[in-house]
From TrEMBL:
Organism: Salinicola rhizosphaerae
Domain ABC transporter: start-end pairs: 13-247, 251-476
InterPro entries in the cross-refs: AAA+_ATPase, ABC_carbohydrate_import_ATPase, ABC_transporter-like_ATP-bd, ABC_transporter-like_CS, P-loop_NTPase
UniProt-listed SUPFAM superfamilies: P-loop containing nucleoside triphosphate hydrolases
Protein name per Swiss-Prot or TrEMBL: ABC transporter ATP-binding protein
Length: 480
């Protein structure tokens, strides 16, 4: 790793003795921080450590309970005027509007005759600069795009001029839905932006990305910054230790002695899975993996009559669209999959529901004082934990997972891997689409998708990152 000298430029934003309280809960405590022009600051910590609260204070969407937030370089009174932009893990696009119309919402000064044409030009130029060969039309409706394309659009809107040059861009898990190739394009763009004098706060649970782009790394734990050092002063294990979770090398999903697999329980569209098998789906994002899982799941679960125990259960990666019920409590979101199995005379067994909820809160480490709190009171990663608990608490023999590790911290990933191994050993089957190649390499077998079809089925010694990447591109090359 190349050493990078820390920038000596003046600070764009400073935080002095900042704290944030939500009732009796202290989300931030005694934060002192300066972000300077020309630097990329990596921000890491487990789900619920205070990262999202910190950047919400910086961008002005939350007001600090104590302390000061100032913008010395611009002398602006607020974050927007100082050129602060944010891309959050929960995307904010309006699905029934086009790319150009969504950019217009972020840029209220764009008005008058021909604003759609100007907005279309601006968003297209931003996409071209960040993601060459993106293939997204400015007039396309957001609802017609894949989740990876939506994430690209959200990032492009925040980097667009919008009537003024962005000075500080906050990126919260910006690559969580992107495949490796597109993610690399974004990381390169971040470095170029900082080299031109911009600043970036980069939040990611993918530590390799942090080391690649960050000049400085901040580690948060329990609402405090517990480490603030140049990136080359850290190792991966050192970061994990600072976050408070002891995890050496990533655990593998497979045990030393390969599990005994049962009969074939899935055979559809060229995809097969046996009882007790962990099957991965890989390839470039948007090439049919999510559609294959959706078709399989809907075909198996669309019966008019409730079968009692469902044949399959689904863990959504796009939790906002496909996962959480935002008006319900954490407990109600978790227990949804077992209500029919535990109900008595058509009534919810609340004692059983609470007991099971408390057990899974402990097992999967959901950070909340009460499961009666609204699901939206949780951080994004903790919301994802609740969706995992909903799936694993059910009695469904097959678990379908659509890129479920989006925004989940490294410690939680290890815990979930252990749960998956234990459930597979009991005979449960997992179908797992992931944009993280390292993750799918831990499965028993992997189907690689290209242009909506399976281009390779890999297992054993063939199951390597190099073979997955080769299969992801080979159909494109053969047709060139």
């Amino acid at each position: 790793m190349l050493e990078r000298e820390a920038p000596k430029n003046p600070p764009l934003v400073t935080l002095t003795d900042v704290a944030k309280h939500f009732g009796a809960v202290a989300a931030l405590k005694d934060v002192n921080l300066a972000i300077r022009a020309g630097e990329c600051v990596g921000l890491v910590g487990h789900n619920g450590a205070g990262k999202s609260t910190l950047v919400s204070i910086i961008n002005g969407s939350l007001r600090a309970s104590e302390g000061r937030v100032e913008f010395p370089l611009s002398a602006a009174d607020d974050a927007l005027a100082a050129g602060v932009r944010s891309v959050f893990q929960e995307l904010s696009l309006c699905p029934n509007l086009s790319l150009a119309e969504n950019l217009r919402i972020a840029h209220t000064g764009m008005r008058g005759w021909g604003w759609r044409r100007r907005a279309g030009t601006e968003i297209s130029q931003s996409l071209d600069a960040l993601f060459p060969s993106h293939g997204i039309a400015a007039g396309a409706l957001i609802e017609t795009l894949s989740i990876a394309q939506r994430q690209m659009v959200e990032v492009a809107i925040r980097f667009a001029p919008l009537g003024g040059k962005p000075q500080l861009v906050i990126l919260d898990e910006p690559t969580s839905s992107l495949d490796a190739g597109i993610a690399n394009q974004l990381l390169d763009a971040v470095r170029r932006f900082c080299a031109r004098g911009g600043a970036v706060i980069f939040i990611s649970h993918m530590l390799g990305e942090i080391f690649r782009v960050a000049d400085r790394i901040l580690v948060m734990k329990d609402g405090r910054i517990v480490a603030d050092e140049p990136a080359d002063h850290f190792t991966r294990q050192g970061l994990v230790d600072f976050m408070g979770h002891v995890a050496a090398e990533p655990e593998t999903l497979q045990t030393e002695s390969r599990r005994e697999l049962g009969e074939i329980v899935i055979s559809q569209g060229g995809l097969q899975a046996r009882r007790g098998e962990i099957v991965g789906l890989s390839g470039l994002a948007g090439h049919g993996q999510a559609e294959a899982l959706a078709t399989l799941y809907l075909d198996a679960t669309s019966a008019w009559r409730n079968p009692g125990n469902p044949p399959m259960v689904f863990v959504a990666g796009d939790r906002k669209r496909d996962g959480i019920l935002p008006l319900w409590s954490i407990l109600n979101n978790m227990s949804l999959s077992l209500l029919s199995a535990t109900a008595r005379w058509g009534l919810v067994d609340q004692v059983s529901e609470r007991r099971i909820g408390d057990e899974w809160k402990r097992r999967i480490g959901i950070r909340t004082e009460s499961l009666s709190n609204p699901i939206l009171s949780l951080s994004g990663g903790n919301q994802q934990k609740a969706l995992f608990a909903r799936a694993l608490v059910s009695r469904a023999p097959i678990v379908v997972m659509d890129d479920p590790m989006r925004g989940v911290d490294v410690g939680t990933k290890q815990d979930v891997y252990a749960l998956i191994r234990a459930e597979a050993a009991k005979g449960r089957t997992f179908l797992w689409y992931s944009t993280e190649t390292e993750e799918v390499c831990q499965c028993d077998r992997v189907y690689v998708y290209r242009d909506g079809a399976i281009s390779a089925a890999l297992s054993g010694d063939e199951l390597t990152e190099a073979r997955i990447l080769e299969a992801s591109f080979e159909m494109q090359e053969s047709s060139a």
